[in-house]
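INTERNAL AUDIT FORM
Audit reference: QA-55
Scope: verify that the stored structure record matches its stored sequence.
Auditor: D.O.
Record contents follow.
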Amino acid sequence: MCSSDLGGVIVAYGGIWLMVDEAHITTFAVHPRYRRRRIGERLAPEARGAAVLHEMNRLLFEELGLRGNQSDFYNPENSYPHRVLERRLGIPISLSLIYLFVGRRLALPITGIGMPGHFLCRYQGPLDEFYVDAFHGGRFLTRSDCKQRLQTLAVAYDESHLMPVSPRRILHRVIANLHVIHKERRDDSVANRLWRHLEVISGVRA
């Protein structure tokens, strides 16, 4: 149960069930005299965030069937967003990009998190935060979960690991991934072209 007041007078209340990565609103009411003042948004912003993210997960990963390509992880088509949408298969950063695109269209406070060895999205609400693992069906993670993953990779935790990254840095990481893949495949023409792109991007300030 949560409530909102103006000048000591309770003008709205709501009841919410929080269950892992879901938030179910059981009751919600605003006094008629105080409606149309955006009080509902102030009443339970963290519940709205969890509920919207849950619906995003249902749409992207259940209805559209987006999923991580674990059996062919290094296929270059996993890195191109348009091919990810066509094939419904991607890697952490490309699936996170699609998640970011949808979240931004909904005006949600979602950013990309470039962890070592993985890529996540983060929803940062007024009272809470959620880390979203798009590669694993939109699984919700806590900061502690992220730290534990770094431990399994034998990476010493640093605060910068969970800081938002700029669009330029995301693009750099996508191209760097593709460069390594094409270089290992001995596709020199594509690898060289991608390397030139990296040089250009690296020379531009974030």
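Auditor finding: record pair retrieved intact. The helical segments are 39-43, 45-63, 81-87, 92-105, 143-152, 167-184, 188-202.
Action required: none
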